[in-house]
Amino acid sequence: MSRLDDKGREIYDLVSTNDNFLKEINKYFNWFSSVPDSCFKGIIPLLKPYYFSSRENHMISMAFGAQLANKKPCLFMQNSGLGLSLDAIFGLHELYNTGMVMFLSNRGELKWEEDQHHFWGGITYGMLKSFDCEILDFDIDGLNVVKKAHDLYLKNKIVFIIVHRGNLDEI
Question: Is the dihedral of CA 42, 162, 103, 20 positive or negative?
Fold first, then answer.
């Protein structure tokens, strides 16, 4: 981490502008959904087609349905939604051996973030490592994670891409 946000708080380095990120994900995916998250607020309004979800398990289920219609879904949510999403992930994607790609914001790893996020910020990696899934890190691999995730998706893998606060424009 080497930069400050507009409020003077330490955040992770910018890995990609929203425009470059959108160009890259649109090469590989054609159906998008999320539960609102401030880390993705600059991206969500630009996703096309975009399907809003108020609950993480509903988003996972909608993505499974989109796959049945030959779409390639890409999902966005924050780490605190993992608990609610697990039954849908394992009851659909794992059970039927279908891939899934999710950009997961790792909220709570920065000291200034809201208290309710700190618990999840401390357990997200450990929790994901306990599943049979692929974990990629946007901060480490940059835009290359999109193609890597797509390639794993085509092999019916469940892929989580960790995004850290500041990696994308939050404008």
Answer: positive
168 DSSP 8-state letter: B
Beta-strand runs (E) in the chain: 3-4, 10-11, 31-34, 50-52, 73-78, 100-105, 134-137, 158-163
List, as one string, the DSSP characters of 114-135: -HHHHHHHHHHHHHHHTSS-EE
pLDDT at 18: 96
Q: What is the pLDDT of residue 1?
A: 67
At 150, the amino acid letter reads H
Written as six digits, the tokens of 144 are 């290359």
Dist. CA 134–CA 129, nearest whole Å: 8
Q: CB count, 10 Å around CB of 133?
A: 17
- Mean pLDDT per block of 10 residues along the chain (171 residues) reads 88 96 98 95 96 97 97 97 93 93 94 87 91 95 98 98 94 70
Other Cβ atoms within 10 Å of 119 Cβ, number: 12
